[in-house]
Please model this.
Amino acid sequence: MTTVAAPAGPPLLLATSLERRFGTQRALRGVSLSVFPGECHLVVGPNGAGKSTLLRLLAGLARPSAGSVHLGGAPLGRDAVARRTIGLLSHQSHLYDDLSAVENLAFAARLHGLVTDPVGNARRSLAAVGLIDRVDEPVRRLSRGTVQRVAIARALMHGPRLLLLDEPLSGLDPAASEQIAGLLDDERRTGKGLVLVSHDVHESWELATHVHLLMRGAWVIDEPRSGTLEEFLARYREALHG
Amino acid sequence: MTASTEGAERVIRRGLGLMLAGFAALAAVYLVALRFTPTERFQGLPQKIFYVHVPAAWCALLAFSLVGVGSILYLWLRDPRLDLFAESAAETGIVFSLVMLTTGPLWGKPIWGTYWTWDARLTFTLLLFFLFLGYRALRSAMHDPAERARYSAVVGILGMVLVPFVHLTVYLFPTLHPQPVVLKPSTPSLPGVMLRTLFLSLGSFTILLLGFLVTRYGLGREAEARGGSDGR
Amino acid sequence: MADLLRAAVAIAAKDLRVELRSRTALVSALGFAAMVLVIFNFARDSATVSREAMAPSVLWITFTFSAVIALNRSFALERENAALDALLLAPVSRTAIFLGKYLANLAFVFTIEAVALPLFVLFFGVSIRGVVSGILLTSVLATAGFVAVGTVFAAIAVRTRFAELMLPVLVLPFLLPPVIAAVQITSRLLAGRPMSEILGWLKILALYDLVFVTFCILLFPALMDE
Model:
């Protein structure tokens, strides 16, 4: 296990002993995570392990039964301001199919308080991910890869420092997948923190700086990335059958 | 607090005990109503259904209030047991509304000549019945237990808020049927003996309601203890 | 407060823009309203039941049932691509989301009513001269109340498998008080009864609105939280 020098400043995200339960059912049992700028934390695990639940807790979309989430030092409560730090990207686009990419992003801009020039902001954000043509067409006419790029533009538009990603590459053809992965890696290099949840280790391995294996609501592996993908897969398989 | 099978069984036993007591009291009430209470002069024997009809309606309303209270407490405290309590109260309420809605027509036919009348109390209980059904329908259509609890709680509270409005508008609704003499919304002008029988019946029904409620709650806890929610 | 309203207006505007783009829900609801009016005209024994006698009930059944049809789309569109998550992640309060949806739904239902009312006058031969303002006021009051409840139940129903079925099942009991009041008021207006007979029912409508809009605002966040 390679040692990583502790970065300066508070972590972008600090999740402490997160639990999520209802009655006798427990989806998460004491999960902790800290994310610093420039890190990409890959979270993998079988279906039902609690990955999506974890992400929703980190995004503030759900409340933990126990434990806490802090963003940049401040607790993530109902506080709207804290949410500005987060950008969310999943396999669903969070877009309105009948509206164009520009209209979708302009709406998001207004919600995030960018009221002076929402449409201009929208076009700039789309251009930043390489989208200039077809941005005025309804989203339903765009290819899946293009839609994901629009979704990234929307997630990045308000300048979040933390990106939460739920299966961002699923359903993409190899070319699109590579392109999106490239964009995400660029964002990481500019100092953003990423938490990437995936059930497919292969696609996301290269992006990761840290890897986590979640099973039945708890970490089985929780460390900086080291070794090869094959070694990790072997340990994954072992944990599954152990 | 996680459910244990023994704890749940204790609750069920207590509930069944209450039910037994309720049924025994009910049997006593029937005896009293049939043999020891004078027959009403104008309506005759069928009037005695009154001793079942009114308490059933009362219990339906009581059950509904319990759903409402349980819902409010759940949203405040987020204790899953409160959700189970509300669910149990709703099922109990369906039973009592059905009793009321079937005895109503049985009584109505010989006395008013018609099976159904839109009198305020019947209509009101019918609405309660539909609210209960809606609550149940929603619960069976949701499978995530936390979400189901939150959403049914919202419906339970809104339902409780609706009840006074239904009462108000239905009562004010101009009706062609004369209001039955005995079922005046103001306290019944019944002679003492009949009033006593009525209260006896009210008491038995309430004990029965508690019995159903506690038993159902216990059954729910037992199901939990046996291995997670079964998705109901 | 200004932020709240601004966010609500942005959300309402977005809803309206989406609907105007596809027009599906609006056209369906309008078609439904027109068809209901037609059916009611024929669903009676013209020898014994006059159109005037049925008129107030028909109007209000048409309004409410068309509204229920239109209300479903309000959260269905958020569900399609999990757009609601993005909404919840934005720095806007849950109350703003409710208000935005509520405003958009009000706009829809008022549009449906604005089209259905002239059709009603046409088909049922009722004269509303002199009582137009009364009918409009009643419509606004009754609609404001049941659309609030409808918006909350639309948010609930959309999480179930048969949302289009669940919404009417849940919301219809809640329509009883405003419909009773609205029909009482409308029939008295059409019959030229004095204001004193109508005031009581108007107060009930206003009270219903106040109570339910308040409770809906209070309870909506619980639906958005997990």
